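dumping this here so i dont lose it again. seq + smiles for pyridoxal-5'-phosphate
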Amino acid sequence: MTAKAEPTPNDSRAVYLDHHATTPCDPRVVNAMLPFFTSAFGNASSSHAWGRAASDHVEKARAAVAKLLGCEPSEIVFTSGATEADNLALLGVMEHASRRGRHVITQQTEHKAVLDTCAELERRGFEVTYLTVDADGRVKSDQLADAIRHDTALVSIMWANNEIGVVQPIPEISDICRAEGVLLHTDAAQALTYLDCDVQAAGVDLMSISGHKIYGPKGIGALYVRKTRPRARLQAQMHGGGHERGRRSGTLDVPSIVGLGVACDLIAERRENDSARALELRRRLQQRLATAFPDLRVNGCLTHRLPNNLNVSLPGIDSRDLIEQLEDVAISSGSACSSAGQDGSYVLAALPGAKDLADNSLRFGIGRSTTEADIDLAVSRIQAAARIAARMPARSQECGVPA
Ligand SMILES: *Cc1c(COP(=O)(O)O)cnc(C)c1O
């Protein structure tokens, strides 16, 4: 096999359409962070001037995050990302509630940060119900209502899916949870850039967000924890020093927290425009792909969907073969053996009618810097790669070690 040129951010030929995996830091985010590595390096817990300066900026960032989420700053707990926020929400709430409630409800297409944490809850003796999704990829509220038991303490349903972009009916789900007195957690890592994720309007009690999905730094995120009506109580999962009001110990990562705050400010400024722009580009992408591949199938519903997401299956073309042939376009496959060596697309497997073409699926994630020319270039390169991939022998059903 011939070696492909490594695409670099400066390579004008490279097209990045994988913004569900991660986004670049906005330059304003980076600039705001820089002083906190060097001159303003204080520990936010120190009581001297260096510490107070750091802590002032942490609180400013906390207020920015809270403003975007529509909550009080004291309801924000900084974490290392959405994975930790999901862990803290699920393990923290269930361990606190363990005497009264030992049952959690989630659904099959959650991110692994939720599903793997649910598996850990099961190992610890809790019970988990995994709701199915319909052909659109959405949870049915009547199924949720039927699944709630007297000992259900928590429902965790993601706001928007990271593979198929499908948006769950969070306000409807909240109504059911409220009526039954059950707490609602949502993973909003993908939703926050494009949708209004106001925790009051939606009636959410705990919500996870991630810095690097919203043009902020990697390794930072937050969990919103409702203080009143109802109060969400949780057991800390990280011990040592009682930071974050005892909910998450550890010296605060001041530069990243500052960066997260600026990323949230930028979302408030740009969300409407970004959403409209992404939707236009998504429509263009879908149209061009449908012209190039007349038998193309879209996975998940198009109406309740993140504007920047498209997930399609190309019948007869293995997406792993296609991506191997693809030059300078970053997209991801939802094949049974993903390149990261994980379990593959359990999301498409859970979607009625999508499972048969899961190995033929491609995920596109449009971003702030994506242009019409990027879309056109990506489609023509995909067409060229598909021509080669279509001639390749079918892969065996077994998952080999990813190349
Ligand atoms: C990326 C992502 C996560 C994990 O976030 P990290 O900050 O990388 O830990 C969790 N949930 C969803 C839906 C995501 O897209």
